[in-house]
Amino acid sequence: xxxxxxxVARNINQAERLARxxxxxxxxxxxxxxFFTSRxxxxxxxxxxxxxxxxxxxxxxxxLAQEYDATVGGSMLMHRDGxxxxxxxxxxxxxxxxxxxxxxxxxxxxxxxxxGDDDGVVETAHGTTGLAVCWELxxxxxxxxxxxxxxxxxxxxxxxxxxxxxxxxxxxxxxxRQYNRYLSEQAPVEFARELGVPVIHASHCxxxxxxxxxxxxxxxxxxxxxxxxxxxxxVSADGTVLARRDLDKGPGVVSANxxxxxxxxxxxxxxxxxxxxIPELTASHRLYWSHQNVCGSAYYRNNKxxxxxxxxxxxxxxSPEQ
Length: 322
What we know:
The chain is an alpha/beta fold. The protein is 31% helix and 22% strand. The strands form three sheets. It has a six-stranded mixed sheet with strand order 5-6-7-8-11-12, covered by helices on one side. Strands 1-2-3-4 form a four-stranded mixed sheet. The longest helix is centred in the last third of the chain and has 36 residues, at 283-318. Mean pLDDT is 93; it is low at 312-322. Keywords: Acyltransferase, Hydrolase, Lipoprotein, Transferase.
């Protein structure tokens, strides 16, 4: 997808069009990207995409799943009990919607939601599946909670790269930019190998403008112009890429036949077994991760209450006209 920031109606329409294209081609399972209802960058318009649990995006997934007797899912920002979560919603043909909250927000995503604590293992018409998004795919704890329990995985990402509007970034961090792209493209491949199951993985594409917070409490930050990386892929249990759409091709659909094992396979072993990251991350990745997590979390605490109350007020005022 090439979603816009905060324009939920437009993004739902694009998601439905692409999902319907796949379903018309005969797909039994359709995966949409993480945050298919809005890009999540440092922009206050993102708050416009924070949805209640009963919303039009979930209704669209349910409608398609029942119309085509299929399984359709993707993640969105959803608020409940006074907080916001990145919730993957997977609709089945029987009318059920299974959910998973991403466990740890990635970097500036902390500015808009908090992590959940479920295991992401859900039942579908085709067997037990694991739901995971973006950097969950490269953390050992994700594999640990799914290994030996799932028969396939439905995943997605919203993985960006270094800024292209900061002087000297390519000269100083060109190798990090290249390695970041490699990590994003390999994530679903390695995830399939780790679990020994096929993986369905949907991505965002396109460029975006946002901000980069400098310190906890910073409300403005620096302009950050960048683009998404990764690829939409369908991967077999041994890591073979069965179908792939690179981001330079723009929005679109890939499809392939996957072989879902009759039972969850025996998990792979690890040395050391208590590692946090599956791939080796650069020092730049680790620093960026730690710094933006702290800055984003402070932004969320400072803005959550006012932003959610404003949205609730607007929703109440506009409801008679809808």
